[in-house]
Give the backbone structure.
Amino acid sequence: MIKMREYKVVVLGSGGVGKSALTVQFVTGQFMEKYDPTIEDFYRKEIEVDGAPSVLEILDTAGTEQFASMRDLYIKNGQGFLLVYSLTNYQTFQDIKPIRDQIIRVKGSEKVPLVLVGNKVDLESEREVPTSEGKALAQSWGVPFLETSAKSKHNVDDVFAEVVREMNFVQLPDQKDACCTCVIV
Amino acid sequence: MRQYGVEMARFTSAKMNKFRRKLSSLGGSTDKDAVVSKIELQNRRLSSISANGMDEEKLIVKGQLIKAASLEKLAMLCVDCFDDAGELQDNPFFPRMVFLMHKWFVPSEELAALFINLYQTRDKSICKSPCQHKPSDQNCRLNRFKTRVCYTVRSWISEFPMHFDLDPSLAREIRNLQELTCKDSANNHKLLVDISNLPSYDWMRAVSVRNSVKRSHKVSLVFDHLEPHELAEQITVLEYKIFRRISFSDFRNYAIHGKLQDNPRLERSIMLFNGLSLWVQCMVLSKSTPQYRAQVITKFVNVAKALRQLQNFNSLMAVVGGLSHSSIARLTKTASHLPPEINKALHEMTEMLSSNGNFANYRKQLSECKGFKIPILGVHLKDLIALHTALHDKVENGLLNIRKMAQLAVVFNELIQLQSTSPDIEANMDLINTLKVSLDLQYSEEEIYELSLAREPRESASAPPTPIPSEKPVFADWASGITPTLDSDTLKKHVHAMVEAVYKNYDHDRDGYISHQEFDSIAGNFPFIDSFGILDADHFARQLKTFDEVKHVDGMISKEEMKMYFIRANCHALSSGFRHDFVETTYFKPTYCEHCSGLLWGLIKQGWKCRDCAISCHKHCKELVVVECRPRGSVSSCPQSSNTSLLQDTDTSRATSADEQSSPRGTERRRQSSRLRHLTPVHQSTQTVKDSGISLMDSASSVNLNMEYNDDEVFVDEDVGSLRDRLRQSEEARAKLVSENQTLQTELASAHDRIKLLQSHIGQIRQHTVSFILDQMDILKMQRDTEV
């Protein structure tokens, strides 16, 4: 018996970094014929990570970056987060930090499952953010880092798999904590 | 595996249901038959895709079966949808979709030119008989074809009259067509393509909302007195007026470029949305006790309910977003005062607007709503962007992607229906003007959250780790597209309208002045700016002196003064005399805001201090300060303020070394010490007066100067008078030094106190830690013992 776990993943980042492209690439894959982003199950996708099948519900925040209070609701609702910047635009990389601050503030915890994503790796000639900087930032937060290309389908599935791992990983210590308190009480 | 299968089955059936629901919603103004036929067509298409491939030219059956087509073909297909009497055949949805959506792909005049081409066609294949093609000949097939072209154009005109009113080059093309019909002396054709009697869509050109009819009946403009439904109605009117201005090309530009630059109408709408959310949060947080805050929340929940009834989902989202924002949601004390039914209602509305299942709940409710409704802008913008990302405008052989056109049309129908409907609400322009100014808040999320923390501090025991705000104006940066500052002209206009409204409703004796009490009640609508109410003698007199109107310092406010105040408060200081050079400052004693007299809260960087005149204020007040900037160095008439500022400076200079205490006891100590400090300058000045009777104008900075003078020239001048003078000066300097000494000693004492307190804290923490470790060891021992 396989139990399907459901995860809510929110894709965040400033405008124009390719959040939609990444999401669309991941959820549609080969079924471009049935493309309709207004139906309920459009952003649901099954993914098998480390042998365990699970269902992801992805919230693409493209187009709503400017709506401040919606962002807060999104974060409240999400379990895992992809923080996307465009490696061809340094400003979008700098925008990432305040987004993480907000996530931590809303969630009230530093241990939020998230993955740092540098998108548009296909535009190597226009790169403004060196891989090392992305890596360093991710390291300082203790989160995985990947460079992707929604256009050439590079690493797209991997970032979603990675965020699932993060969600599994971050949830584990919580359960341990629960056990501990039981013992003490 | 069985569970997996069931899950999949559920997905599929849910998908089908959603699909059907969506299809039934896209009808809009088209009738049921069209929807049904669309479902059938879609199903047929899905089943025959592989057979059909991309070669659309051969398989056209009119309507949605087309995957891609050239623009010429599209125009032809539209004409084919009409019969000789101008009635729509087969697929009524198709021409409307083309009229609506062609602008995504090409300028309107291109489509119009194609209709003209069709009208001019001399294609013999249409009418083979030896016919003269005279306009009067009802049997001539070419003639009948021309009539159908004209019916097509007429349908376009009647469906989207604004296209023709707003697009001069399109209007020119259509007039060309009309001339052609004149040449043909085909009067019936000429009438069909007439665009001279279109309604004006001037309102769509302007960014701001024009004031229409002024109502004469009186209503309360005070937030506390406003009925929730009344507030909801007027918010809806405002929302409607701003939302419906967003044009097709505004949406298109945003979906394609994702930027708000050069998109003022969309930007205005988003500003209103964010302003509403912020206003809700500010109104709640402006109340000092949990009970009051709970009352405000209750009121806004009722406003939200009313918004739902009005089918204004966009404002509903903004209000609910504000109420469930983390800065409000974290207020547990406030939440405990909320009635359960309010909690329940808020929860239900949050569920309804939740992003779960791709906003499934919201989409369902929206599709069930009939008549006037305002959709959530953000959700549909998101759909547009997702569609645009996934589908290309053209397919590989250069044909237009009609599938994309059809799907975009579904979203657009939702967004632009406001241009043709209106709410059944009587607009109250006075209230709307007041709202407009109230909603124009300029706080960042960070500031609101800090305020929330100040209202109900974290409980230290379970405090989650706080992210230390790395750089300061973070969120403002993120939403960098928006500049929520209005230009001064717009602002003046808004303020003018609002002040007029206020006077109409509150100046009961019609003498052109309102009293302080009345003003206080109005000021309650503006969270944190309600300090206008404390337009006490000090601020106000100074302001009035500048304009030689001293006679009204009796607490009466005239229209002009109020306007001036608002404009000055909002515009970044109109004259340079009011411009302060503020720097963020950390205070080590309770300091009060010059503008609103409120405490500068927080541990570090509590407020902003002017480098020149050393007044202090909140970050959000610093733009509003109306006190003139009088630099310390110059001889001023207020020595006390410059003395205090000197003390503040010594405080600030030690900022780096001092540790601050957040415990209530610490704050109390500091408050005491500051009280002592406040006494010192007073003491010093009385001494000065007693000793020499010298004027109070000498500022602290001149003391040093005097002392140098004493040291260098004491033996040169033999004149007794000057000696006496010098004696007096040195005595005065001594007095000042003594007072400074006293101050420093008080500070030293308070610093000692602080150290003691810190030490006791360390002791406590040590104790706690040790006892905790001991406890843990005990438990471990017990466990081990039980195991053994």
About this structure: The radius of gyration of chain A is 17 Å. Strands of chain A lie at 5-12, 44-49, 52-60, 80-86, 114-119, 145-147.
